[in-house]
Amino acid sequence: MAIFGADDRVALQSGTDAPPLAAFSQVLARFSDGVVTQGSGVMIGPASLLTAAHAIYHPDHGGWAEQVQVVPGRLGSIKPYGVFEAVSLSTPSPWRVPGALSYEILKYDYGVVTLGSAIGYVTGWLDYGYNQTGTGLLLGKELLNIGYPADLGGNSLYFDTGTVDRVADEIMYFTDDLDIMPGQSGSPVIYDNKGVDVILGVVSHQLISPDENGVLGLSESSVNAIQGWVSQEGSEPIQIELNPQYQAIDIALATQVVRLIEVIYDQQPGYTLLTDFKNQSTEMGLARFADSLVAAESALSVDAVLASTVTVNAGITGDAAQIAYDYLMAELMADPTHRGEVILKASTLLSALSEDSVFGDFAVVFNAEVVNSLAYSVIATNTDYRAVAASSVIGWLSSEAALDAAVSLTGVVDEIASVDLNSYI
Q1: C-alpha 416: how far from its chain's center?
Q2: Looking at the whole model, is its pTM more than 0.85?
Q3: CB proximity list for 401: less than 8 A, separation 6 or greater
């Protein structure tokens, strides 16, 4: 991969905590030989992420990745939606044929990661497609790339644009712009189709000589394969940039309601209950709704019980639990007529403490559970409320730091003939 002249990649400073930028994700993969790779991807459905095939299946590292984690909208140390585990991986079968020649497999360097949570309903997702008359008509067209370059830390989004200089088979080549480096593998290239962003390709490879950055252009066959994998998660065919169900909900209000339910009931509300609670919050105001919710629970009429329940349901343990309990008791005593509002404010405060030395780890887990609850509860068919253990929501978050360390310390370049299929570690 190459930088042409001055590095034109621009860092995104904000906006990754909301669509459409939230759909762009960091991808971390652990292989059976211990190698950990870092790449990029983008949400293309409620639980489907598009990336490069070699980001999740690499013959030199034992084939399929044993574990893949996706971090939507990551911005440095900030993970606005938490970390999500893959439950299945998909690549074209020709990509996995032992001993296949490089020129035969390049057009199959795409794959889909299916997540255990429908986070796309919160992050949004992008449309994808192909030019029915062939990728050759994209010559001279400007395309946008957004991904996580490893040479710039690997943990923040950067974007760049470039014009297609030549096309061979299904590969688009850039010879003087669209700067790409390891870590951006799997990131999309996007075309502005009359105001609608459409993914037309995936960052794939580089040629050793001459210096060119190669992007795999999507074709009819690859789009059909991707749609087949996406349909297996039960989502509708992708027709528009963002899911209409997502656009119809007030995500800010829904998030606050879900936080409140999390700390009071330790439950995911489901669509029916979330809709009812949002309507009540709109009618009477969120603070007064919170008061009524707490008042309706006779078991929580004692401040000590309420403070203890909220602390436990928020997942706070150890010395931090006593600090949280004491804080809640003081706030409840100071405002005894607005006990629900006190809890609402406390849940909002916890959500903002992901970098705090005392509550940071608890805030990360809490936020991930809230997002997972949202992803479940905004789907109209999920009518039941349910309890979900933290481990099934966020996987092994404690190991994510080890993943980051491995990404920064390890460098591996894998070559197939003249093509550098870097593992983007």
Answers
A1: 30
A2: no
A3: none
